[in-house]
Amino acid sequence: MSARPLSLIERRLIEATLLASVENPFPTAVTSSSDPRVLFGKHLAELRRSRGWSQEYLALESGLARSYLGGVERGQRNIALLNIIRLANALELPPSKLLEFEDRNGGSFASGLS
Questions:
Q1: Which of 2, 48, 53, 81 is the most buried (most CB within 10 A)?
Q2: Cβ density class 41-64: b for 16+ within 10 Å, e for less
Q3: What is the pLDDT of residue 111?
Q4: pLDDT in tens, 102-112
Q5: d(CA 44, CA 23)
Q6: pLDDT band, residue 11 (cuts 50/70/90)
Q7: E strand or H helix at 18, and its extent?
Q8: Which of 24, 23, 41 is CA-nearest to residue 32?
Q9: What was the pLDDT predicted at 65?
């Protein structure tokens, strides 16, 4: 008896479960409001709320675990490029829009990197 292939939804649920179970091997306390992880998370939360979406809905649409998404929005996770693309696709935005956030002084964060 052969096993049936997994559906797309089943594969996404397994993937999200695996992602949620992986702990950050280098946990750091987020203390600075100028930390790019915090700024990215706040921007992501604003984009999500502007659509009237819950974290759970965005998680389902993107295939990411809700707990992981919450950690990203709180600046506790250093999000991977593939996950930025998944979120952008779910929000129907180009990935670059997720990176358009400002530092606490009102300047573009990216302009301060060099």
A1: 48
A2: bbbbbebbeeeebebeebbbbbbb
A3: 44
A4: 776 666 655 44
A5: 21
A6: confident
A7: helix 8-21
A8: 41
A9: 96
Element containing residue 90 per DSSP (H, E)? helix 81-91
25 exposed, middle or buried (CB, 10 Å; 0-12, 13-18, 19+)? exposed
Tell the burial category of 24 from Cβ atoms under 10 Å away from its Cβ (0-12, 13-18, 19+).
exposed
The candidate with the shortest Cα–Cα distance to 79, out of 22, 9, 14, is: 22
| 3-class state of residue 77 by DSSP | coil
Q: Which residues pair with 108 in a beta bridge?
A: 102
pTM score above 0.70:
no
pLDDT at residue 102 in the model: 79
DSSP H or E segment with residue 48: helix 36-50
Residues recorded for the chain: 114
